[in-house]
Structure formats: C-alpha cells, structure tokens
Amino acid sequence: MTTKRTPFIAGNWKMYKTIAEARQLVSEMIPSLQGVSGVEKVLCPPFPDLLAVKAILEGTEIGLGAQNMHWESAGAFTGEVSPVMLAELCQYVILGHSERRAYFGETDETVNRKVKAAIAHGLIPIMCIGETLQENEAGTTQQVLEKQIMGGLVDVTLPEATQPGEVNFIVAYEPVWAIGTGKAATSQGANAVVSDIIRPTLAKIFGSQIAEAVRVLYGGSVKASNASEFFKQSDIDGALVGGASLKVEEFAPIVQAAAG
After folding, report:
1. What is the reported pTM?
2. 69/137: higher pLDDT
3. How many CA atoms lie within 13 A of 83 on its CB side?
4. What are the DSSP calls for 61-94, one per residue?
5. What is the mean pLDDT of residues 137-155?
6. Residue 30 sits in a domain of what CATH number?
7. pLDDT of 227 over the 50 cut
8. What is the domain range of residue 157?
9. How many CA within 13 A on the CB side of residue 160?
10. Is residue 248 situated within a structural domain?
11. What CA dihedral angle connects 202, 204, 206 and 212, to 10 degrees?
C-alpha cells in the first residue's frame, strides 16, 4: 500500500515584489497559512527577496524556494546564482519553468544539469514540464512530456527521503497553454496526464515505488475558485501557483483546499 503523499503548494512570485513589498506580503500571509496543517507550503520569491523573506519565515513551518539557479557551484558566470548560494537561504528551487525554456533558451540538458546540481547541494528540485498549445492540439503531449522527463533526469540519483514513502524531488506539470492565460486544464484531463504519462515515465527511470512517492503538482491558472477540483484528483498532489500566490485572499484558500 502506498503511503499517502503530503499535499504541496508552492507560490511562484515570478518577477514581482520589491523587498519591502515582499516583507509586507509574507507578514500578511503567515497568519492564514500557519493555521493549515497537513500541507507543505513554500514561497518562491525573486532572488533579491530571499534573505528578507527567510528572516520573516523563521519559526514558521513555511518553506522557501528560489525560481532558478545555475548548475555550477562557483565561477565566472556573470548574473547567475549558484546552488551553494541558495543552500544558505532556501530548501527548494524551481527548475525548467516554461518561461525559462521559452524566453531564456533552457533545454532538457540544462535542466538536467541543474537538477543534479540542486540535489548534490541539498536542495529539493521542483522540475517543471509541460506542452505548448500547438503540441497539445497536435496530440503530441505524451511524446513531449516523456522527452522532458527522460531528458531532465538523465543519470539523476534521487536523495533519501526524509519521510517514509516520500521522495525529495517534485514534478510540476504545467501545460504551457494554461499559464497566465486564465485557461486552466480540466482537473480530470490534468490527472490523466499525471497518471497515464508522468508517473509511468518516472517508473521507467526509478521504478514504480519511487514513481508513486514523487509528488506531482499542477500549474497553470490555479486559483481559489478551481483549486479544490484539482486536489480531488487521485494523482495531483498540489499546485505550483503563479499569479494567485501574490494575493493572500487567493493563495490562502488554495492552501486550505489542499488540506481537504
């Protein structure tokens, strides 16, 4: 029997919030998030906000994540941030987000390097995968996702889990056509992608036991009004929330919905 996977909600702030704005938002969020048990909650602000947010989150059970990183631990890489730097600040890192792939040339190969580097430095990767509208309409969702998963996890060894039946590695399925468009995938459709494509592909790499233990999030226009529909599904373990994570009145109900 599979151990029940703990629901996981991550807020991806993208390129929003100054340090002052971040402090205010987190201070407003803590009271409503602290009271929700049985859900892992993580905030992923921009790099400049990490230190300030870390200080405010001290003593809470709310986790902190970064939105990206370089795969090298140090070097002449102007403008980049290393896993060594992040490991002092946060526990999680989003890797391979569709915006990184679309606007900054990230590939399955670079995502793979980052996943390995994150694990090596004790960070928990949230690896993003997803198909574009054209790929979805062409019926190639399975081929696209299999390629992204297999490519992103070449020679990856997952770390030992801290909780029985769980793995310190997270997948976020974000259909690109649903991100920031207001057009979410149907909950049943997203669940079918996870159960019929994502978990079987993970099983090919790591075996069925680990594939069942990996938490898979849905990302793409998740908001308070539709979150519970996704969380009712058997294979969706939470959400990678974009715009709605910037508003307490949206994000808190999403976390509450994940608690069931």
Report:
1. 0.95
2. 69
3. 21
4. S-EEEES---SSSSSS-TT---HHHHHTT-SEEE
5. 96
6. 3.20.20.70
7. yes
8. 8-259
9. 1
10. yes
11. 50
pLDDT attached to residue 1: 33
Residue with structure tokens 């001290």?
58
Residue 163 has pLDDT above 70, yes or no: no
Cα 199 to Cα 157, 165, 169, 179, 202, distances in angstroms: 17, 15, 13, 22, 5
Burial class (CB in 10 A: 0-12, 13-18, 19+), 198: buried
Residue 160 pLDDT > 90: no
Query: How is residue 30 written in tokens?
Result: 């803590």
Tell me: pLDDT of 169 over 70: yes
212 within domain boundaries? yes
Which residue type does 248 have? V
Read off the pLDDT of each residue in 182-210 and give the average, rounded to a whole number: 93
Mean pLDDT confidence for 169-196: 90
**Which has the closest alpha carbon to 240: 112, 97, 102, 110?**
97
Catalytic residues: 97, 174
Directed axis angle between helix 19-34 and helix 50-57, to 10°? 30
| Residue 2 counted as domain residue | no
Q: 101: part of which helix (H) or strand (E)? A: helix 98-104
